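Sequence of Probable transcriptional regulatory protein ENSA7_58450 (Enhygromyxa salina).
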Amino acid sequence: MGRTFENRKLAMLKRGDRDAKAFTRAGRQISMAVKAGGPDADNNPGLRRAIQNARAVNMPKDRIQGAIEKAAGLGDVDEYKTVFYEGYGPHGIALIVEAATDNPTRTVANVRFAFKKEDGNLGSTGSVAFMFDQFGVFRLDPEGLDRDELELTLIDHGLDQLDDGINDDGDPVLVLRCAREDFGNLQAGLDANKIAVASSGFEWVPKTTTELSDEQTDAVLKLIDRLEQDDDVQVVFHNLG
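Predicted 3D structure, token representation.
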């Protein structure tokens, strides 16, 4: 295709809307991390990751601190939990929708409506997950890093794949993947070598991808965009090539 999937998606998004959505997503990640492991980032790896990811989307420091304090009980806070929904979009594209919600009944209704509105079908648990592998993923700024040296350094820490990618602003990043159980080992390797991480987390990576025409791709993008406009939806994984 003439344009990459990432560039086609970026072209559909407004910067202001994207930032607002990113801040909402980051705030919920922080809230869940604090509830799970406490407000001290030094003793809560999940919170360190959430703060790291919030900084990666340029969330202001005062908003990060406010989210931590709110979740720690210094203000009213909603109880969020992570839920996953699976289904098929237009042209048979498989989708996994990750949401952080305080009301699963509301969220599943919104997700089902989005699928129906854009010619997709919400499926049951396990209906498409078998088409994906779950990896721990780290994204790095490639500036100043030697790719071959990085790979050799981290392979003993569980590095499974090292690929090129782009972030939401269209800037290049290095994407490191590892088995879910090796996430902590790879994080420790990066820390030991003083390699800064732009963002990290767990992602569903398709075992194979499906190529579509530009017109068909746009139909899938409309569904993904509609899903991501919902405040409860954190990220949508897919097997579109």
